[in-house]
Design brief:
alpha+beta; Beta-Lactamase; 5-stranded antiparallel beta sheet; 3 helices; Longin-like_dom_sf
Length: 143
């Protein structure tokens, strides 16, 4: 179901990017994640266009493709969370629940006194926690 998750900094710098699929698809998924950042910027900078209000963190579906859908979430510090899924009919409540758990894992990771703000997240504990969240959301696709 979930094939890729990403954490992108407020200056669109990638902080964490993990694919849960074959290596052949990883580059394509990274491209899809980066393309969806334009949609995030558009929704944040033009909130009047059927987008979320300024205080809402869930951005909804950002970028549908033939095989994938990208959902987004924006923190108060302008850090973006992105999820790429193959499931074409995901409920918003499930996606919101995923992002709340993903955000909590991120907060725990960056609260580490050895983490440098704005740098990539290299914590193995964070990677394991994210993998657990993804697995609990649905079966991980392997191809």
């Amino acid at each position: 179901m979930i094939v890729c998750v990403a954490v992108v900094g407020h200056q669109n710098n990638p902080l964490y990017l993990q694919s849960f699929t074959e290596a052949d698809d990883a580059l394509k998924l990274h491209h899809i994640v980066h393309c969806s950042l334009d949609v995030v910027d558009e929704r944040v900078n033009n909130p009047k266009k059927s987008g979320p209000t300024l205080n809402e963190t869930f951005l909804g579906m950002l970028y549908p493709t033939e095989n994938y859908k990208v959902y987004g979430y924006l923190t108060n510090t302008k850090v973006k969370f992105l999820m790429v899924t193959t499931d074409l009919d995901v409920k918003d409540a499930d996606v919101r629940s995923f992002f709340r758990r993903f955000h909590a894992a991120y907060v725990d990771a960056v609260s580490n006194p050895f983490h440098v703000p704005g740098k990539k997240i290299t914590s193995k504990a964070f990677a394991e926690r994210v993998s657990g969240i993804v697995k609990s959301f649905g079966p991980v696709t392997t191809g």
